[in-house]
């Protein structure tokens, strides 16, 4: 009898916990998913979609024009130290740094520049842009709130390229007018993911890397300068607003709690 009472109490407590979680989680997820929405941009810069990226406190705002497969974007992040740099890029051949087509914002002689870099390995970046696979226009950067740097650009993507592997990074210093090597903390390593440019209707997975492209096991020297996204393995998909809701809906904890609550309600 006593154990039956205990069972009932426990059942009720779990039911209450489950309903609290049910009520609280959507609100929490909405707040989390909406954090990037509070960002403001100068006149003339507005974007249809934004995402809070999964590492380094970065956000990405973008407008993808399917008609001409152009991507207008604003990437925001706080450099690792004042006078550092921020970077965002697409990797069409893998999920790490090598092969990434990147935009890097930093100051040269006091003024922001946005350089393009075709990352060919863990090598130092120079002071000058290198050609990337996508035509890059409207490149600019400025200071946002709370020490963030906002990087703007427009990329002309291949037709149909609507899900991409993207990487992002922050560094603490600019040396000889070039971005210096970033730190290799967990967040630096985690700063990559798969991004659907067209939102909820996009396929979940990024396109398969082209055959023979380096995916992992870089033999490059990790100690050389200016690696952008060091670990080409184990990236988490970056949360897009729709991904956040998917994550909520499929939360294993909730599923278990609901199943348990249902079971206890029956017995
Ligand atoms: C980027 O670098 C790779 C490796 O050197 C090269 O194969 C590729 O053609 C380069 N891309 C552009 C756009 O120059």
UniProtKB/TrEMBL annotation:
It is found in: Membrane. Residues 226-242 have a biased composition (Low complexity). InterPro entries: AIR12_DOMON (IPR045265), DOMON_domain (IPR005018). Residues 1-31 form the signal peptide. The keyword Transmembrane applies. Residues 208-242 are annotated as: Disordered. It holds the Pfam family DUF568. The keyword Transport applies. PROSITE patterns: DOMON (PS50836). Residues 56-171 form the DOMON domain. One of its GO terms (cellular component) is membrane. Keywords: Membrane, Signal, Transmembrane, Transmembrane helix, Transport. The chain crosses the membrane at residues 245-266. This is DOMON domain-containing protein. It comes from Lolium multiflorum (Italian ryegrass).
């Amino acid at each position: 009898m006593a154990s039956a009472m205990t069972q009932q109490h426990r059942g009720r407590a779990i039911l209450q916990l489950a309903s609290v979680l049910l009520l609280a989680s959507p609100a929490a997820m909405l707040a989390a998913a909406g954090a990037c929405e509070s960002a403001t941009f100068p006149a003339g810069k507005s974007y249809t979609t934004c995402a809070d990226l999964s590492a380094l406190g970065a956000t990405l705002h973008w407008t993808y024009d399917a008609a001409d497969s152009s991507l207008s974007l604003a990437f925001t992040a706080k450099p690792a130290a004042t006078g550092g740099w921020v970077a965002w890029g697409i990797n069409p051949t893998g999920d790490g740094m090598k092969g990434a087509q990147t935009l890097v914002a930093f100051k040269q002689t006091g003024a922001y520049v946005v350089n393009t870099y075709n990352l060919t390995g863990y090598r130092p970046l120079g002071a000058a842009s290198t050609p990337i696979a996508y035509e890059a226009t409207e490149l600019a950067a400025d200071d946002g709130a709370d020490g963030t740097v906002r990087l703007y650009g427009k990329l002309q993507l291949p037709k149909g390229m609507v899900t991409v592997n993207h990487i992002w990074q922050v560094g603490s210093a600019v040396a000889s007018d070039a971005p210096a090597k970033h730190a290799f903390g967990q967040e630096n390593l985690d700063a990559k993911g798969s991004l659907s440019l067209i939102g909820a209707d996009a396929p979940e997975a990024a396109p398969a890397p082209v055959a023979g492209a380096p995916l992992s096991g870089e033999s490059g020297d990790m100690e050389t300068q200016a690696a952008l996204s060091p670990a080409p393995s184990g990236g988490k998909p970056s949360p897009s607003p729709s991904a956040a809701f998917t994550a909520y809906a499929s939360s294993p904890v909730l599923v278990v709690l609901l199943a348990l609550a249902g079971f206890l309600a029956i017995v």
